[in-house]
Amino acid sequence: MPLTFAAPADAALPLHVLEPDAVEGWAAQQPTRVQAWLSASGFSGGLGSALMIPGDDGAPAMALAGYGTAAARARQRFALAGAVSQLAPGRYRIASGLPGEAAATESLGWLLTGYAFSRYRAQAAKAPGLVAPEGVDAPRIEALAAAEALTRDLINTPASDMGPTALEAAARDLASDFGAEVEVTRGETLETEFPMIHAVGRASADAPRLIDMRWGGSGPALTLVGKGVCFDTGGLNIKPGSSMGLMKKDMGGAANVLGLARMIMALDLNLRLRVLIPAVENSISGNSFRPQDILTSRKGLTVEINNTDAEGRLVLADALALADEEKPDLIVSMATLTGAARVAVGPDLAPFFTDDDRVAAALQEAGPHMADPVWRLPFWEPYEALIEPGIADLDNAPSGGFGGAITAALFLRRFVTDTPRYAHFDIYGWQPSPAPGRSKGGLGQGARAIFGALPQVLGI
């Protein structure tokens, strides 16, 4: 279903948003019958609670949504969304109680509660309609919601229907919607110009490729690079079944940069956008790349393969080398890259790396405002030696196991040498269990924070 606001109408029910300490005062101003109904219900304004209040004819006349305490809200990203599923179907308008500074975030959470992945099974709408609150930029919120829905749909789609060919089709569909241009490199040209992308994907029946999308003719240049490993068996270093179960989401970086691109294009930001997606399946066949192979990257750096399951950094490296050749104002890479990042910060935070303190500050400021928390991790220079195997310039999987997210980020940084500002996001891209505004499954992570930071970083 489209995640959009309801049209304003007299029939929209008033919704009063109440913190626990505001319930008594609000009730004192209501008719006796409302006070009696409220008392009998036991409604206390707790986070995620809701109450329908009937009119004289028994039909709903208004509704209440518990907003909880500040401490409770700090533990839930979309505080109002928890009450949405408790409301009766229909249309609602915020009548009182919602702080103006929270209206945009809570409106986004409300819309996202309506998301359902229905490609393989019909899913009923989960959220009643919301009339855009006064002062909220409705087109902006709708664009953010649509971008999140795109990202979730792409990640949730299994590899049987979201291989490299299908991922290319999704990028072309998005480009067509907004007048962007797409070029795709595959076959012998890919093998020659992007040898590591080719090496990782050559064992799959669905051929590897590099997707290159461009949009915009003026403003600063932004290049997004997203890991598009549509399924990751681990290659010859095959994953155990317990680790392979979620590998349809290993193209989550690609899904997130496409979602971010959709935000940028839908809201017509004044910048020149380029999106690069190395789309592959890390499969197993007689021509799979092997442990101890040495690959020569597009940049000319040689890479010793010490684990074929560390393939994401290989395909990203070739794409980053291409991005760097153009020297844009900012390069951002996004990838479901390392389990070490999950160990470090868990599934709820999007860790990022950058050497630019201004970029970092902008991202950290934008994260809370965009309901998209991020956390800076370091490009720790003393670990550089860990990715230098001696026999080649770089090691794709240094031994020891410590600092895995950092060593992966340091590996990628070697391929961005001419662009002054670079940020890398090592995301999870998955919601392990349902939460308000976030259904279980594929998840946008870091993209809204980047979007919110762009005006400050690029001066647009």
TrEMBL record:
<dbReference type="Pfam" id="PF21337">
    <property type="entry name" value="Peptidase_M17_N_1"/>
</dbReference>
<dbReference type="GO" id="GO:0006508">
    <property type="term" value="P:proteolysis"/>
</dbReference>
<protein>
    <submittedName>
        <fullName>Leucyl aminopeptidase family protein</fullName>
    </submittedName>
</protein>
<keyword id="KW-0031">Aminopeptidase</keyword>
<keyword id="KW-0378">Hydrolase</keyword>
<dbReference type="Pfam" id="PF00883">
    <property type="entry name" value="Peptidase_M17"/>
</dbReference>
<keyword id="KW-0464">Manganese</keyword>
<dbReference type="GO" id="GO:0070006">
    <property type="term" value="F:metalloaminopeptidase activity"/>
</dbReference>
<keyword id="KW-0645">Protease</keyword>
<dbReference type="InterPro" id="IPR000819">
    <property type="entry name" value="Peptidase_M17_C"/>
</dbReference>
<dbReference type="InterPro" id="IPR048816">
    <property type="entry name" value="Peptidase_M17_N_1"/>
</dbReference>
<comment type="similarity">
    <text>Belongs to the peptidase M17 family.</text>
</comment>
<feature type="domain" description="Cytosol aminopeptidase">
    <location>
        <begin position="307"/>
        <end position="314"/>
    </location>
</feature>
<dbReference type="InterPro" id="IPR011356">
    <property type="entry name" value="Leucine_aapep/pepB"/>
</dbReference>
<dbReference type="GO" id="GO:0030145">
    <property type="term" value="F:manganese ion binding"/>
</dbReference>
<dbReference type="GO" id="GO:0005737">
    <property type="term" value="C:cytoplasm"/>
</dbReference>
<dbReference type="InterPro" id="IPR043472">
    <property type="entry name" value="Macro_dom-like"/>
</dbReference>
